[in-house]
Structures are given as C-alpha cells and as structure tokens.
Amino acid sequence: MTAASSSTTSGRVVLTVAILASFVSFLDATIVNVALPAIARDLGGGLATQQWVVDAYLVTLGAFILVAGSLSDAFGRVRILRIGLLLFGAASLALAFVPNPAWLIALRAVQGVGGALLVPSSLALITARFQGAERARAIGIWTGATTVATLIGPLAGGILVDLLSWRWVFAIAVLPVIPTLMLLRRLSDEHVPGARIDVPGALLSTSGLGVLVFALIEQPRFGWDSPWVWGGGLLGLLLLAGFVWRQRVAPAPVLPLGLFRARNFWAGNLTTLFVYAGLSLNGLIVTLYLQQSAGLSATLAGLAGLPPTLVMIAFSSRVGTWAGRVGPRLFMTLGPALMAGGALLLLSVGEDFDYLTQILPGMLLFGVGLTLTVAPLTSAVLGSVTTDRSGIASAVNNAVSRVAGLLAVAVIGVVIAGSLDLAGFHLAMIVTASLMAAGSIAAAFGIRNPAQPAPDQSASST
Q: Does position 136 have pLDDT exceeding 60, yes or no?
C-alpha cells in the first residue's frame, strides 16, 4: 500500500471520509441531550425515558466499539464504514418518525451499533493511509474538524427543538451520511487475512451492560427489593465477569487484558472512568435542569453549555505542548480537581435563578479543568503502549469513557430519587464533584511521567 498525503487528491478523499463519518457520531453525542425534555413532553415516560434515550445508544456503542477494529480487519475498513453509515443513517431517519418510547429506545440501540463502527474505522482508515508526519497532521485535522461537532451540537439541537421539532435532531444526522457514502466508492478496501472476531465476548459485554443498566434505571420505579432490580444487577455483573473471563481465554480478544500491565494504561483508564462519568452526569443534569426547572428554552440551554467547549478549543493544543514537556501527571491531577471545584460552584444555583452568577463561573472552571485533562490523558494512555497497539489502546480508552457515561446516566434516577428538583440538582453536583475528585486522586497516585531523554553529552563537550 502506498502512503497517502493529505495534500493529494486521494489523501483529501480519505481525510474527508474519515471526518464526515466521525462527525455524525460526535454530533449525535452532543445534540440529543438538549432534545430530551421535548421528547419526554411529546412521548411521555418521564426521567426513565430520557435516561433510556441516552443509554440505549451508549450500551451498544460502548460494547461494539471494541469489536469495530476486529470487524475492520476481517471485512475491510471501507466496508465496515459503509455498513456503519447505513445503519446510523437508517436508524436516524426512522427515529424522526417514532410513535412511542419503545420504538425510540430500540432504534437508538441500532443507531449505537452504527456509531460504534464509525469512529474506530475512521481512525483506522487514517492510520492505514498516512505515515509519519502526514499521519500526525491528518489526525490533527480530523480532531479539529470533529471538535466542531461538539461545539455546534447543543446549539443546533436547541434551535431545531425550538423552531421545528425534536424529530429534526435525528433527521439532521442523515445529511452527512449521503456524501460520505458517495465518497467511499472512490476508496479501495483491504482486510487482514485470518482476522478473527470474538463474538461471545461482544455478546457477553452487550448483554451484561444492558441488564445492569436496566436494573439501575428502573430502580426508582421498582425499588431495591424487586427481583427485576437486584436480580438484574446480579445477572449483569455475572455476565460482565464472564466477559472478563472470556477475554483471558479468547484467541482474539476484543479487550486484551495484557494492556493493563502498563501502569499508565490502567491508571489512565481508571482516571477516564471517574472523569467521564462525572462529565456525563454533569452534562445531562445541567441541560435537563436548565430547561425543566430554570425555564430556559432549548436554544438557551444549548448555549449555556458552550463555555467549556470554547475554553477547550482555545487552549487544548497549548496544554498538550506543556504536558509533552513536563509529563501528564500534574495536568491529570489538577484538571479533575478544578472540575470538582466547578461542580461545587454550581451548588450556588438557587430558586431565584441567574445564569451569569450561578452557572457561568462553575462552567468556566469546569472548562479549564477539562482542557487541562483531555490531551494529557490521551497522551498518557496511548504513550503507555507500543505503536502497533495504539489502535486497540485508543479503542479501549474510548470504550471506557462511553461505559462510564452509560453507568452515570443509568444511576441518575438513584442519585436524585427520580425527581430533578433543586435538591436533586445539588445532590447530582456533589456526586459529580466526588467523581472528579476520585479521578484526580487516581491520576496523582497512578500516573507516572515518562523519563526525559538524557542530555547529549557529546554535543555539550564540543
């Protein structure tokens, strides 16, 4: 295979496909939260429906994102991208016409499978087609472009909900799918001979997560003494234990447990688990509270979530450079601690609501902490493994962040006792701060800065 350049026609096509394919998945991750109150008003179901709309997507996304790499190797990256796009696009279009919550939740699960095939396959396409400095430049362009989806998602979702309908939040996701499918026809495909897929592992992880999430979401309705709750929770944990056992004996595991022998890998993923659970809990609770209790429109609620993203876009590259010089440990310790402080500042929210004094300061501090955390965290995790395993290491870290968000959303009803009033909001912020503090402690005691190269003695003596 000939390496591509981002300045050549073939390189531009590859990069455009990777950006568009990932864009739809990143957009969905941020645009749907703003539409949840409108969905609940239209279809009913209350908080449980809102949780399932998010978690049905995250269950299949978190489970199948690990399998996506194996599928790409076995069947070809272009083919898997095409399947992912078709699944995501068809599910998104169908979601715009759902008549009830049951169909909404089922189609969100299908959409999650499609989304799981998009991001890893897009990055694999870049990794396979670019080399050296061109690969770094292509990934940088891909990261910047997909970050735009995070920026415009909440605002676009709010505008669509307020001016049209929440159904357009799903329908709009179809637009990038069509040109991406057309561009894919210009790319050749490759697969790895003899590649194997751990089907039992995928089934165990998906079913285990699904059953455990069911027990957590439905606990406020059934109570802890219900067999559906304690039995579902126990079954989910047993299935997940079976998944871990399967990864120890599988010839081609989707989660190579040997990766966790590297200190920065397990410590980085433990930090990821706490930090991204806090991020998901904070993001959903703040968005819902601003609309359902503070009385903001969907558009204003979307705008309210922009400050952290703007801070991150402005300073993340600079933080990455600093962390490269001094190591990730300080940044990964300080960043989550600042986010914990930002969550505690949100405790100032009262009955007499004021965004500028009660929400904005905490959101800005949250954004500073997030900016200090993300790039060093990614660098620490990927830098802990050899280059040939960076793909699976990235997939594992991505899956950990998704599963963290999945469990955080599932447990919201338990945290706030099924009611998002002011007391429930305050309690959720305390839990968010606790998760961030745990992430800070995990980084402080777990992460080790890589050894700095020794100075060139021969150069200094000449």
A: no
